[in-house]
Amino acid sequence: MYCVKCGVELDDAEKVCPLCGLKVYHPDLKLEEAKKSYPISKVPSYETVNKQGILLLITAALMVPVVICILCDIAITGSFSWSGYVLGGILLFYVCGVLPAWFKNPNPVIFVPAFFASVIVFLLYIDIATGDEWFLSFAFPAVGVLGIIVTAITAVCRYVKKGYWFIASGCFFAIGGYTVLIEFLLYITFGFKTHIPWSIYPLTGCVIIGGALLVIAISKPLRRRVQRKFFI
Amino acid sequence: MEKQLRWMRLDNAAKIYPAARRRSWNCLFRLSATVIENIDVVVMQKALDITVKRFPSIAVRIRRGAFWYYLEELSTPPPIKSEAAYPMARMSFKDVRKCAFRVVCYENRLAVEFYHALTDGSGGLIFLKSLLAEYLTQKYNLNIPFERGVLDRTETPKKSELEDSFLKNDGPVSSSRKEATAFKLRGTLENDGYLNLVTGIINADELLALSKQYKVSLTEFLTAAMIYSIINIQNRTVLKKKHQKPVKILVPVNLRKIFGSTTLRNFALYVTPGIDPKLGDYSFEEIVKSVHHQMGYEITAKNLAAKIAANVGAERSLILKVMPLFIKNFAMKLVFNLFGERKSSITISNLGVVDIPDEMKPYVTRFDFILGEQALCTDACSVLSYNGKLYISFLRTVRESEVEREFFCFLRSLGIKIKVESNKR
Ligand SMILES: [Zn+2]
Fold first, then answer.
1. I need a labelling partner for B182 at 20 to 30 A (CA). Which of A34, A176, B11, B239 fits?
2. Pick from B190, B251, B385, B265: nearest CA to B10
3. B249-302: per-residue pLDDT in tens?
4. What is the C-alpha to C-alpha distance for residues A68 and B137, in angstroms, rounded to an integer?
5. Which residues of A fall within a CB distance of 8 Å from B425?
């Protein structure tokens, strides 16, 4: 028989055209029967690494130190104390390293804030466990704001395909502002104070670079010139 | 006392295969012969037991040394296997370390699948012909002369057959290996690793006459037709001309005739004729002409010797020699992934006309040559002709039969009659 679309002759064993997938059919002619050139029934199995299996293995491997630590802790101190840090640390590692791998296409815009949120929870736990008073006034705002900045940058890089000069400039402004925030938080929590505020140096540097990038981003001829001078 | 097993180094071209292997990929190729009656597996096993002794460089397994892999003679010939739903069922590296080739019988077809580190198509064909001659001799009491690639199985192996001819034929300077990255075909991978085979059968004289019209060889003609087909595919998928990449075909070249070698190990290099569609729209005539000149320029003894020198030079450097095997593997794999197959869109391997002694001809109806899946390409194309028929096989890892359709339909539009068969599920 022939394929009406491709015009090639087909082996009698072909029920559809192997080239275009068109069904072999003729209203007046009976289809010939013939044996295929390969036994269709015997599909060889072929080894693949099971991703989920490996992830389960990693999960189980991480469980071992956690369980050992908790048991030792209870046996030695009679209560649940230092093993909480181990548990927290391993959980933190799990959230940032292993958890995204469970998903087919992990979205960083979800996993980056999730990571910062778990850092905050872990720090809160340490703060309560040690009985210190630095969480609310320092750790929470410092990590929280950093999380917002990093999440914003990842989101912009992922969803906005243009304006990389603007994004780079924004990064520098954000970093500069962040150093000021850190100095302020250090001051109100721990009372650190220097004669001249130290954050002025990184801030100035960041503002200069960020400003330069912003100018380049706005001015098209300047951008062209920079590209011409610094192409790789 | 136990017999000392013969061992030998991998030849220069073979070294890349164990290093660049992947979990699911080992470069294989298959040669098969179809005979008039169903194959008697018992007789075939006997024939194989005799034949392997004549081919100490093919009846081997791969073993690991501290600095290099090496080939070791098999202590017992391997058993004959039965056919699966597709050719070239994966041979894991564990299998290769037990036995690096397999003999598969299905109904009236005898197939041998070789790990590419052992030999190339021409070497493998001599093995297949000799095995087939031994089988036919035993089964039908024939008296087959030792000619046209059929070797005497009782003879001791010749030294010239076991040599690494690359090391003997390197030129005074090495040529640069820099090449532009080629357009890559894409598709949906079969999720269970199924390999789809489509074979087109063409009257060889008809196609030969057509390539004569264009004043080129058959390989050049097929290469040009493939470039033309892939340019069409690229035009459909990459709409902007400035984003299109060169379409290049990897064409293996048998070096035995050029350098007068009779080795049974790898002795082939490749050339990559191609067309850059950015330069404008090419007519088929222009492509044929360009391919003819590109291949004519590349395939000269001097040019090929310079290519050999580049490959051999790396092997000879002392620093590379004393590097532990695992570091060497890592480095070779990196180079292979970065440069190896990215330089071509598809491979067309043409083994040419298969000739056998006249005594065998009434018993053998057909030969096939199938090149195994490539690491980074969706398709591999292999060609061979026997008894006035040309067999063009496409083996692909993806579902879409785009290249085959484009290619065969183009030949059809030139007035060539084609018969197609497949292992489509
Ligand atoms: Zn069709």
1. B11
2. B265
3. 999 999 998 998 888 888 988 888 989 888 888 999 999 999 999 999 989 988
4. 71
5. 40
Provide the ipTM: 0.77
The secondary element (H helix, E strand) that includes residue A200 is helix A200-218
B197 to chain A: nearest residue by CA? A18
| CB pair distance less than 8 Å for B423 and A37 | yes
Nearest chain B CA: its distance from A20 CA (Å): 7
Return the H-helix or E-strand segment holding B202: strand B196-203
Burial B195-214 (b: 16+ CB within 10 A, else e): bbbbbbbbbbeebbebbeeb
Chain A residue with Cα closest to B195: A43
Predicted confidence at residue B229, as pLDDT, reads 93
* pLDDT confidence of residue B159: 84
Collect all residues with Cβ–Cβ distance below 8 Å to B185 and sequence separation of at least 6: B230, B233, B345, B346, B377, B378, B379, B402, B403
pLDDT tens by residue, A185-218: 888 887 777 777 788 888 899 999 999 888 888 8
Q: What is the mean pLDDT of residues B114-119?
A: 89
Residues of chain B neighbouring A7 (CB-CB closer than 8 A): 409, 412
At CA B8, angle to CA B3 and CA B10, rounded to 5?
150
Give A3 Cα–ligand 1 centroid separation in angstroms. 5
Q: Is B259 helix (H, G, I), strand (E, B) or coil?
A: helix
* Entry pTM: 0.73
Please say whether the dihedral angle defined by the alpha carbons of residues A50, A56, A59 and A64, taken in this order, is positive or negative.
Answer: negative
Residue A100 has which token pair?
Answer: 């995204």
pLDDT band at residue B194 using 50, 70 and 90 as cut-offs: confident
In this predicted structure, what is the pLDDT of residue B1?
A: 42
Q: Looking at domain B196-323+339-353+374-422, does it have CATH number 2.60.40.420?
A: no
Residue pair B251/B348 in contact (Cβ under 8 Å)? The answer is yes
- Coil vs helix vs strand at B102: strand
Rounded average pLDDT over B108-131: 90
Query: Which of B199, B405, B418 has the CB atom closest to A9's CB atom?
Result: B418
Residues of A whose CB is below 8 A from B419 = 8-11
- Residue B303, CB half-sphere, CA atoms under 13 Å: how many? 12
- Judge: B420–A10 Cβ closer than 8 Å, yes or no: yes
The fraction of chain B above a pLDDT of 90, given in percent, is: 30
Name residue B114's amino acid. F
Any B CB within 8 A of A18 CB? yes
Mutation site, B86, B391, B412, B420, interface A, largest A CB count within 10 A: B420
Average pLDDT over residues A40-52: 73
Among the listed residues B151, B113, B107, the one whose alpha carbon sits nearest the alpha carbon of residue B133: B151
Question: Hey, is B371 helix, strand or coil?
Answer: strand
What token pair was written down for A20? 């275009």
Render pLDDT for B34-73 as a digit per residue (tens, 0 to 9).
999 888 889 989 999 888 888 888 888 888 877 788 888 8
CATH of domain B2-163: 3.30.559.10
Q: Report CB contact under 8 Å: A11, B83.
A: no
* Distance separating alpha carbons of residues B105 and B30, to the nearest angstrom: 12
Assess whether pLDDT exceeds 90 at residue B202.
yes
- Separation of CA A24 and ligand 1 centre (Å): 9
Instruction: Report how far residue A149's alpha carbon sits from residue A165's, in angstroms, rounded to the nearest whole number.
Output: 17
Where do the structural domains in chain B lie, given as residue ranges?
2-163, 196-323+339-353+374-422
